[in-house]
Amino acid sequence: MTNHPRPVVPGFDDGTVFRSLFAAYPDALLVVDQQGVIVLANPTALELLGYAANELVGMSVDTLVPDAIRPRHAAYREGYAEHPRTRPMGTQMDLVAKRRDGSEVIVEISLSPLDDHGLPLVVAAIRSVASYPRVRQALQRARYAEHLAQFSRHAVDVADLHLLLEQVPVIAAEALQVETAKVLLLEPSGVEFRIAAGVGLLPEEAIGDCIANEPGSPAGFVAASGESVLMGDYAAESRFTIPSHYLAAGFVCEISVPLADRGRNIGVLSVRSRTAKRFGDEEVRFLESLSSLLATVLQRTQIEEALGHAQRLESVGQLTGGIAHDFNNLLTVISGNLQVLEDSPGCAADEFSQQLIGAAIRATRRGAELTGKLLAFSRRQVLQPTIVDTRALLVSLTDMLRRTLDQRIAITLVADAALCMADAGQLESALLNIAINSRDAMPHGGTLSFSCSIVSSLPADLGIERAAGGSRSERTDYVAIAMSDTGEGMPETVQERAFEPFFTTKEAGRGTGLGLSTVYGFAKQSHGAVKLVSAPGAGTTVTLFLPRADDSDYLDNDDAIDATPGNLPQGLRVLLVEDDVEVRGVLHRFLASMGCEVTACAQAEQALTALMADDRIDLLLTDIALGVGMQGTELASRSHALRPALAVLLMSGFSSELADAPPDWELLAKPCTRLDLERAMVRALSATPPPPLLPIRAA
């Protein structure tokens, strides 16, 4: 190989050039000796790690490693010293550097030994992952998502609306890193806004002050149009009149988004900054999401106030039934479209999109669970009883509680082998509600004991009101699941009201009072009972009595219909009846993706006409509540009278009409997944059709 002489450059000095390169290099560079001591650090390293000049030199490189992984790093460094070579570090793990202030930064590190040049040193090139534009954007989105989750947690834990309102501008300002944020609520007259909450307010602004609702102002435009406004630079703004005190205070840009309550604009959430063009589409979307969450909290508060005025359990049941129907229709639209989006080509291969969609789907499930809690105490939830291995369920539940409850609480389990007839998911939820109450009753720790046994009858001292109607004489054996704590216990006055909805002894913001009432409702609807024994200072025992499964239950379970997905015949002709256009669209897309031929109708009368005109229809899929006119149960009966071989599947958002549903019809609860729908259709197609319940009227 021919050695070419280096070109001679006037004034060229190797040392000067290399020192300049080391100082100007955009990545952080550390030169480390064989003992792991830093001998050189460039300015980028000082900036990245938060050290002043010369502070890093002489320090051990281990100082820059988080405490938790320092021993592993030392072993890695020793192994590298034995076989040094140029290569990236930590290809199988995320690397984290510890800064001078104790904070951590995710980094990439490449190592280059200098032993080939006669120096017993290693150069570590360090780059912050956050320096990549796409990563920076993802981290920004993640930060916004975390702040939204933070507010969601507040909304669950805090019942006081004023405290939640105060949190909104705090979270907005912190997430967007701006100077000021405020919530304006429109007064009933519509003429003024009231400053309901804010941070960084100017002297001209104060909580409780009213400002005019002027069409030419950003807030007035947003409230009137329902559209968000982004102003990147006040100096270039020609659409609105900017208040003079904003300009005098140095503010230069703003976002204002609407605050809506069931389609009606009731206020504005806005943020301002002194940095020009500080905001973009991501910030607008974040603020809109925060506003939407606040609107949901306002709606929840109104619902809770309405429920609080209900005097009797049946009144509450009727109200929650109506709320559940509308709310579950909304959840059906949201979750259904999310499922379609999740499988779309544009999102299926995008990991970040999948994470966001997954989080949204989980949120819809939580919404459905909340609705279930409201319905449980009024005994209007849809239960799907199956044979439950009670001991196996308790083993799984206690294992989970040991990991999640206060570590000062000891958990014990003594359970006989027992099978009960119950909805497994609702049973687990009921037991969790009891466990949470026990945890709260033992703030300094204690023992939570689970037991399970078979009893021949309900206890004689069990009040008839707490037993399922008629079940005392109809059933002869039960599975008794008892949970005992060593907590504070309850006085008699509290025990008498313990199962009432919304009754709670916890401080404001720490409970809704729905825990034990949902347990009570579940037990009664399951043809069982619940008993509470407690005394001040002696702890509490809650015992749930559920019907024991017998031999006939085994046979029914063994002969259950195979509802494996994919069992639907291709080209199945489905008559879909749903009065909500958005829900109908979601279900239509689900059915089309299964290869079904769909005829969609908004009304029962229209569906009956379609059925008489087409004798090829295989399955009727109808909602129970269809607005004004014929309801889904009547449509199903009339359709079956016309076509005895027609398969029928009823849907319900847990509305009050559920009570009219014949027990033999297959029922699908909303919101549902595509898989839930497919399984229910398989069961409906395999079931023996029941006889018609209603006579056929002349058309």
Description:
- The chain starts with 13 loop residues before the first helix and ends in a 13-residue tail after the last helix.
- By secondary structure, it is of the alpha+beta class.
- It is globular and about 100 Å long.
- The chain contains 21 helices and 24 strands.
- The protein folds into five domains: 14-131, Beta-Lactamase (2-Layer Sandwich), CATH 3.30.450.20; 135-307, 2-Layer Sandwich (Beta-Lactamase), CATH 3.30.450.40; 314-376; 386-557, Histidine kinase-like ATPase, C-terminal domain (Heat Shock Protein 90), CATH 3.30.565; 562-686, Response regulator (Rossmann fold, 3-Layer(aba) Sandwich).
- The model is unreliable at 309-313, 463-475, 508-513, 554-562, 655-659 and 690-699 (pLDDT under 50).
- Strand 4 and strand 5 (104-113) form a beta hairpin.
- Strands 1, 2, 3, 4, 5 and 6 form a six-stranded antiparallel sheet that branches.
How would you describe this structure in keywords?
699 residues; alpha+beta; Beta-Lactamase; 5 domains; 6-stranded antiparallel beta sheet; 24 strands
Chain-wise SSE layout:
Layout lengths: L13 H11 L3 E6 L4 E4 L1 H7 L20 H13 L4 E3 L5 E4 L5 E10 L7 E8 L4 H25 L3 H16 L3 E7 L5 E8 L10 E3 L5 H8 L3 E3 L12 H5 L4 E9 L2 E10 L7 H28 L4 H31 L1 H4 L2 H26 L9 E4 H15 L4 E7 L3 E4 L1 H17 L5 E10 L15 H4 L3 E8 L6 H6 L17 H11 L3 E6 L5 E8 L3 H8 L14 E5 L3 H13 L3 E5 L2 H10 L5 E5 L8 H11 L4 E6 L13 E4 L4 H13 L13
Parallel strand pairs: 14-16, 20-21, 20-22, 22-23, 23-24
Antiparallel strand pairs: 1-2, 1-6, 3-5, 4-5, 5-6, 7-8, 7-12, 8-9, 10-11, 11-12, 13-15, 16-17, 17-19, 18-19
Helix pairs in contact: 4-5, 4-8, 5-8, 9-11, 9-18, 11-16, 13-16, 19-20
